[in-house]
């Protein structure tokens, strides 16, 4: 990671396991919640309706269960848009 900006290496849609009581900015729990397509356009363009939603107004985050108490999987909703392979 870049020492001056830890978000430089965070890709939108990336999933990480956190043990924090509060989440860092730009991350949401991977708990299946619905999100607005209009508010999270970049993430929607990457995962679409893979995990649910109507694809017009909303889409859903993946649901990933905690591997142990005090840990939670989270998905990056902010960061760098990944360059994808053709």
UniProtKB/TrEMBL annotation:
<dbReference type="InterPro" id="IPR037053">
    <property type="entry name" value="Phage_tail_collar_dom_sf"/>
</dbReference>
<dbReference type="InterPro" id="IPR011083">
    <property type="entry name" value="Phage_tail_collar_dom"/>
</dbReference>
<dbReference type="Pfam" id="PF07484">
    <property type="entry name" value="Collar"/>
</dbReference>
<feature type="domain" description="Phage tail collar">
    <location>
        <begin position="13"/>
        <end position="65"/>
    </location>
</feature>
<protein>
    <submittedName>
        <fullName>Tail fiber protein</fullName>
    </submittedName>
</protein>
């Amino acid at each position: 990671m870049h020492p001056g900006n830890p978000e430089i290496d965070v890709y939108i849609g990336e999933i990480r396991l956190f043990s924090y009581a509060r989440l860092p900015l730009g991350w949401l729990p991977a708990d299946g919640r619905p999100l607005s397509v209009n508010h999270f356009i970049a993430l929607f363009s990457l995962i679409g309706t893979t995990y649910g939603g109507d694809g017009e107004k909303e889409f859903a985050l993946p649901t990933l269960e905690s591997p142990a108490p005090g840990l939670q999987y989270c998905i990056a909703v902010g960061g760098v848009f990944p360059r994808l392979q053709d």
